[in-house]
Amino acid sequence: MIGLDAFRLRCRAFFAEPAENLGDQWSSGIAFQRRLFDAGLAGVTIPAEFGGQGLPVEYEDVLREEAAGLHLPTGVFTITLGMCVPVLLQHGAVAHKRRHIPPMLRADETWCQLFSEPNAGSDVAAAQLRAVRDGDEWVLTGQKVWTSSAERAAFGMCIARTDPDVPKHRGLTMFVVPMDAPGITIRPLVQATGEAAFNEVFFDEARIPASSVIGEVGGGWSVTISMLMNERVSLGAASDSLLTGSTAPVLAEPGDDRQRRADLFAREEIQRYVALGVRAAAEAGHEPGPGGSIAKLAGSDLVRRAATAHLHQRGAAGVAWDPADEEAAAVARAFVHAPSLAIAGGTSEIQRNIIGERVLGLPREPDVDRHLPFRSVPQNASPSSAAVDAGSPGRLNETS
């Protein structure tokens, strides 16, 4: 095993070479992740049999220390590496880990998560997409929405309803879904920024192998919770600095509001320490807990404040700019995009509920249908609801 000092020098030499800019975030991210893998720096703590380096957590700490303050093109792998790999490691069969984790680390496979539905809202446990066993296959029928990078993903982790006759949390199963399977249709959703980072995904009797189950049939809720917790860690404990990254020059210009900058700096430092605590727990083998919700809530607020400060600092150029001014366009786009981060990975209201219940010990939110068979739960009318003959109006509660 390589010594810790030698590993630090390897990291330092790697980051001394600037990340290649291939013109778009996706291509640059793929190239960077492959270079990271070839340098022996991808999946530092993941067992070698699954494509990682199999090193102690101290080595992951060194990698993060050497990367601190650098603006790296790693965002395109937030779902693949920050959410799906940890869930496969915790809940996947050995065959899943050996088949998928190495190409995920090499950037040969990108993944998406298929959770949200039009009729479920923030109540993830109210998922209605139906999965029915047919011999050696599962047949999936229904719809997902707000699926990031579905159009690029090779596979997705999909939560589906396998038993509508038990309470909603007990009738779910998680699947590995090949996104090119017959019967799956992906349609882009254009956002206010003009971009289409999200998609709606339709399942028209899409067939997947019986071996696609992650965890146990009917045990999908525990896998879902693991995914959601890792998602909050990934979103709330991001390493990119809001003050030292690509948008930093906006706040560094003459005439900057020093008080606003000082406030953002203090908040970012607090966020960094929260993130370090969350990461340390994860690297020690503990499943992410409510600390992920604290990091996610604080991170969403920090991004909104930073985007607003950037826009204000530009003055009139923040609302009207020369089309050739790419920096101004990027600042405006960041401002319009920022509120969505308070929704992704569970709304800020959900995070406050989790923190209130699991950290502060406050009473649980009322959940009147928790013990009802899912088929008996009142539902909103939608085409996908016919999949299970029952649904649930979305509520701000996923802590069951």
Give the percentage of residues in beta strands: 5-15%
Mean of the pLDDT scores? Answer: 84
Number of strands: 8
Please tell me the CATH architecture of the largest domain by its name: Up-down Bundle
CATH superfamily of the largest domain: Butyryl-CoA Dehydrogenase, subunit A, domain 3
Structural class: alpha+beta
Largest sheet: 4 strands, mixed
Shape: globular
What is the overall number of helices? 11
Q: How large is the radius of gyration?
A: 22 Å
**How many independent structural domains?**
3
Contiguous low-pLDDT stretches (5 residues minimum) are 239-254, 382-400
Distance between the termini: 43 Å
CATH structural class of the largest domain: Mainly Alpha
Helical amount among residues, as a percent range? 25-40%
Q: What's the gist of this structure?
A:
By secondary structure, this protein is α+β, with helices and mostly antiparallel strands.
Helix-strand blueprint:
Layout: H1 4-16, H2 25-38, H3 57-67, H4 78-91, H5 94-105, E1 111-114, E2 130-134, E3 137-144, E4 155-161, E5 172-178, E6 184-189, E7 198-209, E8 213-214, H6 220-236, H7 248-252, H8 258-283, H9 291-313, H10 326-337, H11 348-358
Parallel strand pairs: 1-4
Antiparallel strand pairs: 2-3, 3-7, 4-5, 5-8, 6-7
